[in-house]
Amino acid sequence: MTDSSPLIHHSEWCRSLRPVWLLAELGVDFDIKAYKWDDLKKPEYLEINPSGLVPVLQDGDVKMQESGAITQFLAEKYGQGQVTVEAGTPEHAAYCQWFHVSEASFMAPGVAALFHYNLSSDKDPEVKNKAIKCINDVLQILDKELKQKGSEHYLITNKPTAADIMMGYPLIMLQDVFKDEVDLSPYPKVTSYIQRLRALSSTQKTFGEYNSLPSGLHHIKAGPQS
Ligand SMILES: N[C@@H](CCC(=O)N[C@@H](CS)C(=O)NCC(=O)O)C(=O)O
């Protein structure tokens, strides 16, 4: 780790993509330490996070876990207002809502539940049905909300915010990892929104190069912003 760069502990397709994407969007230099999934339960990583989960952020004296908290912290520390909205405004209410829906109502009970169902040996269809229902419930609300916005609009404003990155990660995962299990065609506004997110250079770098970096430490030089 270089002294001045934030370091994200990351594993492929994991929630660590949220802070990685955020830093890429902000054009900040940062470090990624990449792990294979199985290495998250080895002593070396358990010393960094005893729960064996990613992401973990190390940034100077700061060490924290929980992807949403890390994304919020980094957006406020490094963003200079670029990916946040003014507190107390109606846009801020929408920002807070989608920022938290992304993990509490969408990723944890829906997308991640489906992921764990696929890994489990006892395939209880009830578990899968519940996860898919939860995903569709959020997609329905999101599609309706996006219908009210212009075609250049992201979730909150005409520029991407940290809330887009929080929601964008599970949405891209649905399209790339779960395309045979979750049908996005009933949600045309959601699919065009994902397309809009994919056009950002930060998205392309995150889900292209950074997602599947080989194990070990990598220094990421800030590129041009989207
Ligand atoms: N709510 C936490 C969840 C963290 C979490 O479950 N991370 C997953 C990857 S997305 C993990 O590290 N799993 C490793 C395992 O289950 O062994 C967050 O948002 O950071």
TrEMBL record:
Residues 89-217 form the GST C-terminal domain. Residues 3-82 form the GST N-terminal domain. InterPro entries: Glutathione-S-Trfase_C-like, Glutathione-S-Trfase_C_sf, Glutathione_S-Trfase, Glutathione_S-Trfase_N, GST_C, Thioredoxin-like_sf. It holds the Pfam family GST_C. It comes from the Eukaryota. Belongs to the GST superfamily. This is Glutathione S-transferase. It comes from Apatococcus lobatus.
